[in-house]
Amino acid sequence: GAVVSQHPSRVICKSGTSVKIECRSLDFQATTMFWYRQFPKQSLMLMATSNEGSKATYEQGVEKDKFLINHASLTLSTLTVTSAHPEDSSFYICSARDAGFTQETQYFGPGTRLLVL
Amino acid sequence: SQQGEEDPQALSIQEGENATMNCSYKTSINNLQWYRQNSGRGLVHLILIRSNEREKHSGRLRVTLDTSKKSSSLLITASRAADTASYFCLEGGGSEKLVFGKGMKLTVNP
């Protein structure tokens, strides 16, 4: 099946620093990738939709200047948490749709756990 | 956005028993997908059932879809401890974004 990777899998940073998370589709091209955030014991909350070659679409309540998304190629999308604070500590998961098929199924990355001290 | 809601929210069973989870949705769908998430991990796609299908099997998984009632069920037969996870249903299709419901936490006791 299709594989999506994320890097890093876990990151600990100091408050005020920026953290970049990469999401890669390893064996397929993805024109659309999605970024989710999941707090403990809660469901995944969609943050933004990342479209290759264009600006990301953010969900209501998600600050686009704080969560920078870049989808520069058909296999890579990045999420940068700028000036991270402890409340940004969460589990971030990306997903991608295979552009070569009917785009019915999303393939999820393994997630990145961010801890801001 | 489209969201599925799972029922029950939590289920605890013994290994070997069957587990049934139900999902309801509100809009018209092209397909409905079930995912599994192990604690602190990413999501794994389990099975997709299209709107013109009524039942689908994959190994120990059986999914049914009733579009008239806007509901779906996921049956896991002969459960194993490794099936312990959270399960999500998701309405899908087209280019629309997908929104997850709360999920259903299944615990299979050895």
Question: Could you name the key traits of this structure?
Answer:
heterodimer; A: 117 residues; 7-stranded mixed β-sheet; 0% helix; 52% strand; B: 110 residues; mainly beta; 12 strands
What's the structural blueprint in terms of helices and strands?
The complex is a heterodimer of chains A (117) and B (110).
Chain A: E1 4-7, E2 10-13, E3 19-25, E4 32-38, E5 44-51, E6 57-58, E7 67-73, E8 76-81, E9 90-97, E10 106-108, E11 112-116
Parallel strand pairs in A: 2-11
Antiparallel strand pairs in A: 1-3, 3-8, 4-5, 4-9, 5-6, 7-8, 9-10, 9-11
Chain B: E1 2-3, E2 5-7, E3 10-14, E4 19-24, E5 31-37, E6 43-50, E7 55-58, E8 61-66, E9 71-76, E10 85-92, E11 98-99, E12 104-109
Parallel strand pairs in B: 1-11, 3-12
Antiparallel strand pairs in B: 2-4, 4-9, 5-6, 5-10, 7-8, 8-9, 10-12
Q: How would you sum up this structure, described in words?
A:
The complex is a heterodimer of chains A (117) and B (110). Chain A has strands at residues 4-7, 10-13, 19-25, 32-38, 44-51, 57-58, 67-73, 76-81, 90-97, 106-108, 112-116. The relative contact order of chain A is 0.33. With 117 residues, chain A is mainly β. In chain A, the strands form 2 sheets. In chain A, strands 2, 4, 5, 6, 9, 10 and 11 form a 7-stranded mixed beta sheet that branches. Chain A starts with a strand and ends with a strand. Chain A is 0% helix and 52% strand. The mean pLDDT of chain A is 90. Chain B is mostly beta strands and 110 residues long. Chain B has strands at residues 2-3, 5-7, 10-14, 19-24, 31-37, 43-50, 55-58, 61-66, 71-76, 85-92, 98-99, 104-109. In chain B, the strands form 3 sheets. In chain B, strands 2-4-9-8-7 form a 5-stranded antiparallel beta sheet, with no helix packed on it. A 5-stranded mixed beta sheet of chain B has the order 3-12-10-5-6, with no helix packed on it. Chains A and B meet through strand 4, strand 5, strand 9 and strand 10 of A and strand 5, strand 6, strand 10 and strand 11 of B.
